[in-house]
Amino acid sequence: MKDSRRKFFKTGVALIGGTVLGARYLSAMPIHFGKEVVNVGVIGTGDRGSGLIRLMNQIEGLEVVACSDLIPFRLEDAVKLTKSAKAYADYTDLLADKKVDAVIVSTPFSTHDEIAIAALKAGKHVYCEKTMTKGMTEIQAVIDIVNSSGKVFQTGHQYHSSPLYNKARDIIRSGYIGEVTAYECQWNRNGSWRRPVPDPKWERMINWRMYREYSGGLVAELMSHQIDFINWVTDSHPEQITGFGGIDHWKDGRETFDNVHLLYKYPSGLDASFECTTTNGYQDYQIKVLGSKGTIILDYTKGTIFSEAKGIKEKGLVDGVSGATMQAWEKGEGASIDAPGNDPTLDALRQFYESIANGAPVISSLQTGALTAKCVQISLDALYENQIKNWNQYPELLFS
Description:
Elements (H helix, E strand, L loop, with lengths): L2 H14 L21 E6 L3 H10 L5 E7 L3 H9 L5 E3 L2 H5 L6 E4 L6 H10 L3 E4 L7 H14 L3 E3 L7 H12 L5 E8 L15 H4 L10 H18 L5 E7 L12 E7 L5 E7 L7 E7 L2 E5 L4 E5 L17 H6 L4 E2 L7 H15 L7 H20 L3 E2 L10
Parallel strand pairs: 1-2, 1-4, 2-3, 4-5, 5-6, 7-10
Antiparallel strand pairs: 7-11, 8-9, 8-15, 9-10, 11-12, 12-13, 13-14
């Protein structure tokens, strides 16, 4: 076990005293008739883990039967969201529960590999939240165990499951907006990114995102989604990565940067820029795709195409966008991409169920998750070492 993981788990066990909590019950939960039920254990019941429980409560066939967290009050609150889940202070006890078919790993970034590997060895299917794994050795270790496990392994880059993002990918790859030469991405917020801490003893466990030992900061927690999208659209990866950032605004003892700016160069000549700040939330989240014939702008739930050339406005070239396209372009406005703005995480969890119960292909796969994790690691090295990093400086990921 890595020192950071050992320290994290030992600290938690010391603070909670190894207590195993009793089960709680809620009414008005879905009842499953005639459909195979996949019993899920959620490891890590902070904001993200609890949010995933709420979504799984909406999915017929998924039943949360166990939860685990080192922080007792978070574990208690999460169990209250379920029908009859058993609570475990130690995740290894959850993995030993034979009722559990699959696990959600929504723990701090530095613990993903250890827990995912242990879960696969215990015969569980795994949904591993983004970013998949911290560190090159750890990425390869997860790849190796997934390949030998025969279990479903899905990574939590949920835009693979979004009808909107799938439609946008199809439009881009079709050449509809011409040659794409650049992506401009932002994910800006106005706030410290800190969580309230009821007692100082919980600081590093609750605000783990602030500490490099456990976290990849803004790159791993936010920008990784946009990095993953570009790799997915291009079926490629960057050849050079550089960037800068700092702890320039929130002087509160954090170690991870409060602003990050990255530049990626892809082999095709494509450039991608990524911006993430914590002091201004204007326009929040956005991916801008710049093509020779048009531009696509994506946010969480909608996409818009702007025309760059006369050819894209011609009748018959508007497949994939709404019927108002022609009128919008004549007015110099953008035209909406005609695709449902579903909650992509809800769809991702549905697809996790389908992969387990019915053998459906894994959408956000080991391969795409590992590729993005490598990008995140190189990006962090480039930022912290203030260097340009080349892809071929790092070990090749071996998938077979």
